[in-house]
What does this fold into?
Amino acid sequence: MRLTLKSPAKINWFLLVTGKRSDGYHNIFSLMQKVSLYDTLVFETSEDKEIHLVSEMGIPEEDNLVYRAATFLKKERGCSMGARITLHKEIPLEAGLGGGSSNAATTLIGLNMLWELNLPVDTLISIGSRIGSDVAFFITEGPSLVEGMGERITPIGMGGGLPLYILIVKPPFGVSTAEAYRGLSSYSRVDRSLVELFLDAIKRKRYNLLSGVLRNDLEGPVLLRYPQLKEIKDRLSGTGAIGTLLSGSGSSLFAVYDERDEAERALRLFRESFWCRIVQPL
It folds into this structure.
């Protein structure tokens, strides 16, 4: 049996860091949205009952979230079957786009099908939350409110397939998540009015209101540490975008447009110097 699945990237419409836990991790309050930038995973049964990962990433198997998700699921469910998983990367690393977490989620979904485990979505979400912070989100459909360490997922029921164009710009360096969080000097309160503003903008199709939603507590510390990111953000802000924001912990930034022509004009300003893509919300 052979399965091919797409593994999407994400953006955070807002990301509030609400505190630090006793285990060293942080609690967040965030609205996440999948976008049309994909890695591809191919799943095939393996006769030797082991997990084999084929990837051009050049890192040890045990450090890859795909391998970790596969071995975790195999052990968790007592599965005797193996798999050969081939990972084709398009989502850049250390970009704040959730590529690794998405790959892990797609692995759980793919192996659930390949091994015919028939696990319900709720079970996959529970398993995903034990593998990585954003993994559970990528198992759900549509944009979702994500709280806690990423394990509390609430789909908002609308916002998928929005007629918006999102230009993602990534410089040639990455930012580690741990590094981004180390730069925080204070924490935010949960602000549910941001969810209401997002839903209001979508319902009324007044997408310019989304500028009031875009907020990322990690942006200030990261831009302070990396002046080139501040320069990119300033240039993006001058392209007629509805708004611009650091994506997750960075290093990519995104700008939101309601006209594709505007997004393409902005793309031409950056594509010779940086990795760039125009994507749409899923």
Observations:
- The two ends are 28 Å apart (CA to CA).
- The first strand starts at residue 2 and ends at 20.
- Residues 2-155 form a domain with the Ribosomal Protein S5; domain 2 fold (CATH 3.30.230.10).
